[in-house]
Structures are given as structure tokens and as C-alpha cells.
Amino acid sequence: MALRKGPLLSVQLTANKLQSQVDALLKDVKQPDKREKVYERCILLKKSVDETLETLRKLKKSNELSLVSNYDQRKRNEERRLKGMSDLLQEVARRLNKELTKQKMDETDDKKIKTQATAVKRETVEGDDDEDVEDEESGDGEEFDKQDGVQLFITICDFEAQEENDLAFKKGEVLRILNQKPDGWWLAENAQGEEGLVPKTYLQVHKQSSKSITIEGGDDEEEEEEDDDDDDDDDDDDDDDEDDDYEESEDELEDELQNVKQVPEAPSEKSQLHRIAVKKIVSEINATEGLMSMGNIPEGFRASTLAQLLADGNEFHMSYYLQPKLTQSKLCFKDLHWDRVHGGVRPRKTHITHTFTLWSCRMVPLPGSAVQVLSRQVRFCLFDGQRVLSNIHTIRATWQPKNPKTWTFSPRVTGILPSMVDGDCFVRSNSQSSNIGILFELGVTYFRIATGHQGELSCGWAFLQLFTASGDAVPHRTYEIILNGGTPYEKGLEVDPTVSKRATFFQHLMVSRKQPKLLVKLRSPTRKMRAILNLLPETLVGPNCYIHLLAFYRQLLADALLKDRLNMQKADLICNPVLATFPELLEQTDILDAVRSAWSEKEATLSWSVKRDATFLKNLFVQVYHDTAYPLLRSTTLPANKWVDDEVEISRWKAIANFLQESQEKNGSLYSLLSPEHAYQVFDIAEISYDFLGMGRNTVPLN
User: Fold this and answer.
1) How does DSSP assign 568-637, residue by residue?
2) Which parts of the sequence are annotated with region: Disordered (predicted)?
């Protein structure tokens, strides 16, 4: 007799089937000829996901046939997964609907052109009276209006166009509705003949909908004047009926608004992530179609997902995650506490604390000759299959001209060597998700010779799961992970399918050697490193060479916010140049490397007994920071930082090296600050003012 499945297990199996259907649907989205059917599938699939989610929320632990370990955690994980699928499908349906609506708009325009051409031919050949022609045209117009369901609506407030196909309008405009969609975005036309999508929650039924509006001009305006004259004669007789109709229309509108979901003004972080994910699947695929159709890039290449997230703002930058977060009550800090025993930041252990070393990437395919590769890099973050859970860090790769398909990295960066090539990194998180892991996205910055366009392509991605299916941590060892094609939201795609397509039956045995792979070694941090990592925020990823600098910054934060503040209920600005400029420093890694190099040289001169004095080390770090980072950040002679610009990077590196040498010879930066050979920006009070309430929300200036 087969064992009966518990309710939670049944929902998990159903969710797995739905997940496979979602993955299959995302593959079909790329084919333009199937998008209309995919839209219908998407609506039905979302309905199934929502029903399953509702069933899951009604489950109780007491309904299980047998004891289920970690029941609440498993239920939360499944609810999060189903909610993510529902949001993803909703965004896919919305974008597909807009794309299909745009196609219908183009077809409608073609139909109008043909109708006008037919009318011109009829007028030329028949040569009938103008009155007959006007009667026929008005009859045709009425038929066209009836077919397309044209109605008159008046706008109740202003609307700014959010996307390309939207139609902006001001309050009080009269719009013709050409097509009413169930998602709440209607196809409308204004008095100037412009068409686009408008939200129906911004519209109100026009009480004089029987009147015509000026669309084509000329003859239509004369017809409108005649209609207005007729209506004016009947206004006195129809006032009562008109008021009744208006009240009925308002009642219908109120009923309709109750069933319509309002457009959110401030979308949540999760919805924004899903919106970006769908953009990579639906919109950004078209950005690489030109290169792919010409055979310049393999089929598995896409526009870089993580690069786009970094470019959208500071939400996925390290500077954002370093700022202390407030609790829900906004009365204290959530992840920054004072240790009264040791006099500093209270250490916080996390569920996930690992270090890893990127060794190499092998057999990574190259773009075609029409694309020039400017740089190769790997971006990584924490990921649960649906959301990015941490900041995103970038590691530059090196390669040899004789073997361009092999990327290598430089572990244990010391001195003034750039930290961008450091392959030794850490990950830290307190997330309880069983699906969490490290997402690696390989990318190239390219320059298209024909058009001069510069962008970043994803050459594949790899995912290192940190927990097994049973919930145990994966062992610390070296992993050889095969790269996947497409975006992290697409499953089952190869980076270069031609490798397996060209292989014969016997060659398939050797194909695995030709598959692109990522070689990474997962480690456990040493006791000393773990103690420093526990001073950092709960969620953070980055290179190991930054750890001690980040720990000093957190100690200074604790002093300023928890120890030295006289009134904990006030949020006044704090005068501290280090706290005010450190987030900006994190965006200019070459200056950060200068601080790291200067600190290493200064620390090497200290005795062992002095190194045990935490207060002395903290004050010494502030002095080193003032002598290196502060002048360089305000220098006007230092070229602006630009990504993958070799000339700028070399000139900045030389200028920084000369500054460090001069400061070392003159025993500080005072000579450089007062020297006429160096120029600096005009002083701004923001350089020394730290706003702990606004720092985490403000965007750090990016160069």
C-alpha cells in the first residue's frame, strides 16, 4: 500500500511542477511568433500559482499525517517561492500585453491608411456630390467606431508617460478609447491623433459621450460644430436625463474602480527585482538580437543582468549595505550595537560565513571579430533563485593572448596591487533560505566596431548552492561548475549550443571537456578572520583584502552613533570626514587600494604590544585616511574614474603612486595640500557631515 502524501508535501510537488512550467514559458517568450499563445499560458499559469499559494496559506501543522521537521520554515520557503513565481508571471503578462497591444496599434494604423486611400479613390472615380461622400464617410466612421468599441472619457488627473508606449495627458482632456484591456491599461487617442496606453483608473466616463471630438481636423470640425448646435437646442429638454445618465455612469465607475488594482506609487524592492528580471528576458534579449543574428556572439550570451542592477542605483553597492539599518520602530539600530564589555561593536554571528577563491574559468567562448573585447570580469552575489540577496562585487579577470578562453585571477592581493583582481573573497548572510547560494556571472565589456556602441554581455552564469536538499551545509572543497547560458532567471540553456550540436555520438563523451566551467574553492574562514567578519553587517560580500578597513569603519560608526552621541533621540548631522566620505571611497577602488597600501606600511612599523591597543589603532587609521583618501577624493588633477578606459586607469594609478611617495617623503599630506602644484575642489560642508538617516537612501555619486 502506497504511503499517503501530507498536505505540505503535495503543495511542494505541485510547486515543483509549476516551476518547471514557468521555466518552459520563459524559454518560449524569446520566440516572437509564440508570444500571443505564451500570454494566454501565462494568465492560466498565474491563476494556478495563485490557487496553490492560497491552498498553502490555509495549511496547518496539525493537518499533517506525520511529524514534519522544520514545518514552519518549509512552509515559508514554499510561500516565498510561489509568491515570486506569481510576481514574475504578472510582470511577464503585463509586458507581453503591452507588446501585443503595440502590434495591434500598428495594424490599426495600417487599416486607417488603407481606409483613407480607399476613400480617396472612391472620390476620384465616382465624383459624387460632397454631401453623399460626407454621408458615406460618416457611416464608415460609425461602423469603425462600433467595431473598435470607441468611447469618450475625460481624464481626472495628470499622468506622465512611464514607458515608450504610454500616452501622457493633463487633467480635463477628452480621450477616445480604442481598446479596453482587462489589465487596466487601455488604448486611447487624444485630440492630436496621438495613441498610447493609459491607466483606466485615471479616467471618467464623459457625460456628453454622444458628441464627436476633433481628430482629423478640417471637415470633422465642421461636423462637430453642426452637432454642437443641434445638441444646444436640445439641452434644456434633456437636462434631467443627462443628470441621471451622469449619476449612473459615476456609479458604474465607482464599482469598476473597486475591482481595479491601483497603480503602486513606490514599488517594493522585491517587485523591482522581478521587474528587472523580466526586462532581461523580454526587452534586453532584443538588444543582443543584432549581434546574435550576425553570428557575432553565441546563442547563450545575454545582456549582463548584474551589471544592469549595479547601474540602476546604489541599492546593490557595498556602500549601501555598510550603512546601519534602523528597526521597524525607527528608535534604534537593527545591525549595530555597542559592546559594553569590550568597548566596541558587538560581534554578530551569522547563519552563513564563507570565504572562497576563484581559480579560473575555462573554455569560455569568445565573441566574433565584429566585437572588440575591452575587459573580462566576474560579478557575484548571494542569490536564492528569485532575488539578489546581497551587494554585487566585481572581480576583473586576466588572460593570455595565446589562450583567450581561459580566465585567471590573482589571489592574495598585497601592496598597491589593484583589489579588482583579487580572487579571495568572503560571503556573509543571516538568511534562512534553503535555496541560497553564490551566483557568479561571467561578463565581457565589448565595443562594437561597426556602430561604436559599448556595453556588457553575460558569457554565462554559475550557481554554487550553499546547502543540500536536506538542509546541511555543503562541504568545503574545490567545485567545478558548468556555466549556464541566458540569464539567471532562465534554466536549461547552454552558453554555446553549437558545441553539442556538432558532436557525434562518440564525441558526446568528450563534450564535457569543452563545456565552459568555473573553478572555485569554498573555504572556512580562519578564527582571526571570522572574528573580524563578525564586526561587519549581517549581509555583505566582497574581497578579503577589504575586511580590516571595513571593520575600522564599523568601529567609527559605533563610536559616533552609539558612544559619543549625547542624545539618542536626535538625528543631527555628525561632523566626521571619514564617515561622510567612506561610501564615496568604496566606488573608487584605486584610492581604496592606496589607503590599504598606506595602512599596511604603517601597520608594519608597529610593535606587537601596540597592535593590541584597539583605540590607538583606530586613531591611527583615521590619521592614515586623512593623509591619503581625503586629499585624493578632493583632487581636481586626478582624472575622473572610467570603467575599462586603460589610459585613464594608468594615469590615475601613476598620480596616486606619486602622491603616496610624496606623502611618505614629507611625512604626511600637509605639503601636498598646501603646494601650488596640486589643485583641490572648493570646500563643501557635505565633506565632513555624516547623515546616518539619509546616507543609506541617497545614491552615491558614480563616475
Assistant:
1) TT----EE-HHHHHHHHHHT-HHHHHHHHHHHHHHHHTS-HHHHT-HHHHHHHHHHHHHHHHHHHHTBSS
2) 99-147, 206-272
Cα angle 162, 168, 172 (rounded to 5 degrees) comes to 140
Q: Where does residue 496 fall: left (phi above 0), alpha (psi -120 to 50 degrees), or beta otherwise? A: beta
**Residue listed under C-alpha cell 492560497:** 54
Q: Are 427 and 382 in contact (CB under 8 A)?
A: yes
Distance CA 544, CA 616 (A): 23
- pLDDT per position as a tens digit, 266-319: 444 444 544 554 554 444 444 455 556 555 688 888 889 999 899 888 889 999
Interval 18-53: pLDDT, tens: 988 888 888 888 777 777 888 888 888 988 999 999
Burial 142-153 (b: 16+ CB within 10 A, else e): eeeeeeeebbbb
Q: CA–CA distance from 616 to each of 324, 345, 580, 623 (Å)?
A: 24, 16, 21, 11
Q: Which residues does the chain have with pLDDT short of 70?
A: 1-4, 104-150, 206-296, 411-416, 499-512, 695-703
Report the distance separating Cα 365 and Cα 299, nearest Å: 11
Distance CA 649, CA 445 (A): 15
What is the rounded (10 degree) CA torsion for 111, 112, 114, 117? 170
Options 3.30.1330.40, 2.30.30.40, 3.40.630.30, 3.30.300.10; CATH of 128-258: 2.30.30.40
Model pTM greater than 0.85?
Answer: no
Report domain extents, the chain.
7-96, 128-258, 270-544, 571-703
